[in-house]
TrEMBL record:
Identification of the protein by name: Phage shock protein A (PspA) family protein
Name of a matching Pfam family: PspA_IM30
Coiled-coil ranges (or none): 32-138
UniProt keyword annotations, A-Z: Coiled coil
Protein source organism: Cytobacillus oceanisediminis
The family this protein is said to belong to: Belongs to the PspA/Vipp/IM30 family.
Organism lineage: Bacteria, Bacillati, Bacillota, Bacilli, Bacillales
Length: 212
């Protein structure tokens, strides 16, 4: 039965890894965004734990101060009872003084542990924030590279597409042919108008000359 569960687990994990590999190949930025969201959630969990640790440290501090204060109070009361010859009251106050002192010592140890744990959480939280920021910057860098890659791919696709290229060049040839025709028509029209004006001028000059 254990082997069966192991095979099932291995099969599921293999399918999952294959799906992630396929997703990464299709859209690596989307998969990176998914990883970043997961890291953000983990960082937020650590932040909440750190807040709870702050609260716990404050509670330990209050309990420690209270236990110390009560131990001091019972110590003074035991001294007063001893001076007054109240042995039973002295024993009761001394016993409570001992209990409060033991409690204060225990809380002091817990407070020290909580402070150390809080320092470790703070260090990890800051490290996670820095890593998260670095990952965001790397994502922007990768997005920029991906945009350039896609743009280059699109340009290469256009330039290497023979039908598109032929269409573009044929359009240029059409425009060049049109300009050639237009230039020819303008020149022809200019020459015709020039010849007509010259002949008319010659006719006028001939009319003015006397017939011999």
């Amino acid at each position: 039965m254990a082997n069966l569960f192991t095979r099932i687990k291995d099969t599921v994990m293999a399918d999952l890894h294959e799906a992630l590999d396929t997703k990464e190949k299709k859209n690596p930025i989307a998969l990176l965004n998914q990883y970043l969201r997961e890291c953000e959630r983990e960082t937020e969990k650590v932040r909440k734990l750190l807040e709870r640790q702050y609260t716990l440290k404050e509670e330990f501090t209050r309990e420690y101060e209270q236990a110390k204060e009560l131990a001091g109070k019972r110590k003074r009361q035991a001294e007063i009872a001893a001076q007054a010859g109240e042995e039973e009251l002295n024993q009761f106050a001394s016993q409570e003084q001992m209990q409060y002192e033991e409690r204060a010592n225990r809380i002091k140890e817990l407070l020290t542990q909580a402070t150390q744990q809080m320092g470790e959480l703070e260090r990890k939280y800051e490290e996670m924030k820095h890593k998260l920021k670095d990952m965001h910057i790397r994502r922007m860098e990768l997005m920029g590279r991906e945009n350039i890659t896609r743009a280059n791919h699109q340009m290469d696709k256009v330039l290497e597409n023979n039908s598109y290229s032929d269409k573009s060049f044929s359009r240029f040839k059409e425009i060049e042919s049109y300009l050639d025709r237009l230039e020819h028509e303008v020149k022809s029209s200019y020459h015709r108008s020039t010849i007509d004006a010259r002949i008319a001028q010659l006719e006028k000059e001939l009319e003015k000359k006397p017939v011999l």
